[in-house]
Amino acid sequence: MSSSPGMDSDPVPAPAPLPPSRLVSVRLTAWYWGLFSLSLLILFAFVYWSLDATLRKANAELLHSKVKEFADTYKDSGIAEIRRDASQKRSDEFLIRVADSQNRTLFASLPDGDPQGPSVLLALEARNVLPAERLFSIGLGKWGAFEFANTRLKNGSFIQIGRNASHRRGPLEHFVASCLGVAFPVLLLALAGGAFMADRALRPLRNLTETVQNIVATGKLDARLSPEKTAGELRELVISFDQMLEKIQALVEGMRGVLDNVAHDLRTPITRLRGIAELALRHPADLPACQEALSDCVEESDRVITMLNTLMDISEVETGAMKLNLSRVDVTDLARQLTDFYAELAEENHLSFSFTASGPCVTVADESRLRQAVANLLDNAVKYTPAGGSVQVGVRAANGRALITVRDTGPGIPREDLARVWERLYRGDKSRSQRGLGLGLSLVRAIAQAHLGECRVSSTVGAGSEFSLRIPLITSEL
Ligand code: ADP
Questions:
Q1: pLDDT of residue 194
Q2: Which of 63, 54, 53 is nearest to 162 (CA)?
Q3: Where residue 414 falls among pLDDT bands split at 50, 70, 90?
Q4: Pocket around ligand 1: residues whose beta carbon is below 6 Å from it?
Q5: How far is residue 381's CA from residue 393's CA, in Å, rounded to a whole number?
Q6: For the chain, what is the mean pLDDT?
Q7: Contacts of 401 (CB under 8 A, 6+ apart)
Q8: What is the pLDDT of residue 1?
Q9: Which ligand 1 atom is at minimum distance from the Cα of 438?
């Protein structure tokens, strides 16, 4: 088989590869980084809130214990002791106030160095203290507040201890500063990590794109990805892609092979046709020679037409387009008639024919197609079996199928060629001396497939071959 020059060339100019796009990578990184930042922010806010709540609680407990302490002192020793106590245990942070039942200040000690002390005292005096109130606060504009613990004594007077809430600001500000200090490098690290992970995750897709672009640019289908370098779901994609490439490559190579063979096999009869016509044109006056040339031309044309028709029949089966003209067929009868016909035809070859059948074997099939298939098997047996050999034809029903076997004592087929005999336009090396197109067995297989059947071959070089055709036994029309 020769390959025709120019078959491999790609007539369509390959499009320039697209510039690599990182849009998905950038988006993935941005999404990851955004979500990470949001989570970090939520975490910091939660810790800030818990810290603030803890500090508030601790402050309230402290104020309560102080109020209780002063209340005990007041009960035991009166206001003079409180005054003494307040100046002794004096704490610069606390505002201590004792008020009578009319909320008139009996005693007040202001926090040291807190300019807001006097105004808070005034606010306390102006305020209606509810008897059951234990904790309250007095606001000092936007950010500040004084938090108070309050207790009412039996005689109706109040003891109030307060503290500027700004004492909590220190630890909270420290916390915010620490968070900001940590957040910056952490966010930077998250951005770099996100970009790295997105790049890593999308690498197999980029390889895939590169491979596809490479195939588009060069037309070479032998490029493959490396599944061993990919993990998870993308590994399955890479494996499937490689398998797809494998199949496409096999298909394209198969088609190229068929095209090469068809081109080669058409060239021979057409060159012959041209030669015959040219020769006849040189001697237009020689009528008998011209007539012979014309008859040769018809013969050669028939050969080309047969070849093209057979190729189209095979394609029809492969694409599911072959229409079967179904009817009831007795396969035994059909095979016997063909055996008789070929036995007569091969008389001069001194081939002995035998036919065995277990009885009528009726199925629903396209009779002319089935006849064509069995005839092709018999034709090959006659063609390849040397004089003196024998051809045995058998028909029987087995496992719901009609089994037709054609066994000969021909040269046999080498083991390595057995699978190839069904290929379109395949001809064994030693068979080229015989007439033939290399399409007979491909058509037999196509007809068997169209009938939902199959065909097989077994052969021993030097001893002969056995071809079998299996057609399902169907008794009612499909
Ligand atoms: P053709 O006979 O026109 O060459 P086929 O498709 O019928 O094409 O057969 C393909 C090839 O299979 C043949 O060229 C031949 O090498 C081999 N072959 C087919 N039938 C036989 C047979 N009965 N004995 C030996 N070889 C055979």
A1: 93
A2: 63
A3: very high
A4: 380-381, 384, 408, 410-411, 413, 421, 426-428, 431, 436-442, 465
A5: 10
A6: 86
A7: 453, 470, 471, 472, 473
A8: 37
A9: 8
Ligand 1 mutation pick, 311, 349, 378, 380, max ligand atoms within 8 A of CB: 380
Q: Helix 331-345 to helix 367-384 angle, to the nearest 10 degrees?
A: 40
Are the CB atoms for 358 and 397 separated by under 8 Å? yes
DSSP of 88-113, one letter per residue?
HS--TTEEEEEE-TT--EEEEEPPTT
For residues 406 and 391, the answer to whether their CB atoms sit within 8 Å is yes
Query: Tokens standing for 38?
Result: 């949001």
Q: Cα(6) to centroid of ligand 1, in Å? A: 30
Q: What ligand 1 atom has the least distance to the C-alpha of 412?
A: 25
Lookup: tokens for 215:
């195939």
Distance (Å, rounded) from C-alpha 382 to C-alpha 409?
10
Its pTM stands at 0.55
Residue pair 225/240 in contact (Cβ under 8 Å)? The answer is no
CA-to-CA dists, residue 417 to 144, 422, 460, angstroms: 98, 10, 12
Taking a C-beta distance cutoff of 8 angstroms, is the pair 326, 365 a contact? yes
Rounded Cα gap, residues 70 and 64, in angstroms: 10
CA distance 244 to 249: 8
Q: What is the pLDDT of residue 9?
A: 43
Q: Tally Cβ neighbours within 10 Å of residue 242.
A: 16
The H or E element spanning position 193 is helix 169-218
Measure 428 CA to ligand 1 centroid, in angstroms.
Answer: 7
What angle, 0 to 180 degrees and rounded to 10, lies between the N-to-C axes of helices 287-318 and 440-450? Answer: 40
Q: Helix, strand, or coil here: 351?
A: coil
Place of tokens 């080498």: 414
In percent, how much of the chain has pLDDT > 90?
Answer: 42
Model confidence over 189-220: pLDDT tens digits?
999 999 999 888 888 888 888 888 888 888 88
| Nearest atom, ligand 1, residue 376 CA | 7
Residue 344 has pLDDT above 80, yes or no: yes
